[in-house]
Amino acid sequence: MYIKKIVFDKRADSGVTFYLHDQKTAMEHIEERPFVLVIPGGGYSFCSEREAELIALSFVAKGYHAGVLRYHVGEHRDFERSLEDAKQVLAEIRKIDAKYKVAQDQIAVIGFSAGGHLAAAMSTLLEEKPNLCILGYPAILSSFAEVMKIKAPSLDTCVTKETPPTFLFSTFEDNVVPIENSLLYLSALEEHDVPFESHIFQKGRHGLSLGTKWFGASPEMIDLRFARWLKLVCEWLELNWEQENQPVNQTVNGPMEKDVLELPLEQLLEDRTNQAILFQEFPKLAEKSYYKILRRFSLNQLQQFSPEVFSTARIAKVHEQIKQSQRVGGKK
């Protein structure tokens, strides 16, 4: 394993430490490895050692490259500077020597507590974002930012459709960061149709880290149910990265195209012309709650499930109008 430390601000002790797999002869068949960036918590007062190297090395043991970001904390705490640290570390990952075979389109960030706040900020506020985001008992709201003595917005209000898929784990009994922080962030992800997975364990204190006996600061910091998060996260990472690598169905002339009637509504409505046609014929589709119920269905399916609303005649009318608009627009 190759370990490299890069200092951003010597005075504030900010920077990154990389833990990179050497591509030994026995592993030459591995083309690229994903990278997991770890951001420890500590309320922007310090960087928790229990959420730093030991987390990174846990991911290294799973076969990933990893790194630990140490950002501006304590007397140097400054949210904008911390966010700049996060921006800089993404640039440093891009510059890692090609011989280490870092999969540049498979970069995940995992942050705990205040580190989760910074990870969520990376995923919402930065122009260049990580590909996947993992949040462990994260601080999200501006009210908690005040407690941490930083100036930052409520990050749930910063979520957009560009926010990367997210895995969030926490506990209902968290005695430091109210579970409201997680729930509001999850609600924002749902509102913007950002894929997510979440595990809210009923029991458990704040700051459990890995939750195992070798890393618990005291008996109440050992929770083997909570400790399952690492396995769940790794499964989720693979699920998303395997999905990214799925081949596109091909025809002789290029990617396979579905008939308009077979496309999910949400895909049809990405086109403004289609949107105008469908909203004209079915006004209730413009109502958010109604649309959310139906968005995964195709027009053919809606005709089968609700023929009294999506009648054959109305579907045929919409179909013809969409085809006409495609002809006018020069679409196939």
Automatic annotation (TrEMBL):
GO biological process: proteolysis
Hydrolase among keywords: yes
Keywords: Hydrolase
One GO molecular-function entry: serine-type peptidase activity
One matching Pfam family: BD-FAE
Superkingdom of origin organism: Bacteria
Entry keyword annotation includes Hydrolase: yes
BD-FAE-like domain location: 31-126
Coiled coil: none
Positions of the Peptidase S9 prolyl oligopeptidase catalytic domain: 161-209
SUPFAM superfamilies: alpha/beta-Hydrolases
Record PANTHER family: AB HYDROLASE SUPERFAMILY PROTEIN C4A8.06C, PEPTIDASE S9 PROLYL OLIGOPEPTIDASE CATALYTIC DOMAIN-CONTAINING PROTEIN
Name this protein carries in UniProt: Esterase/lipase-like protein
Organism the protein comes from: Enterococcus durans
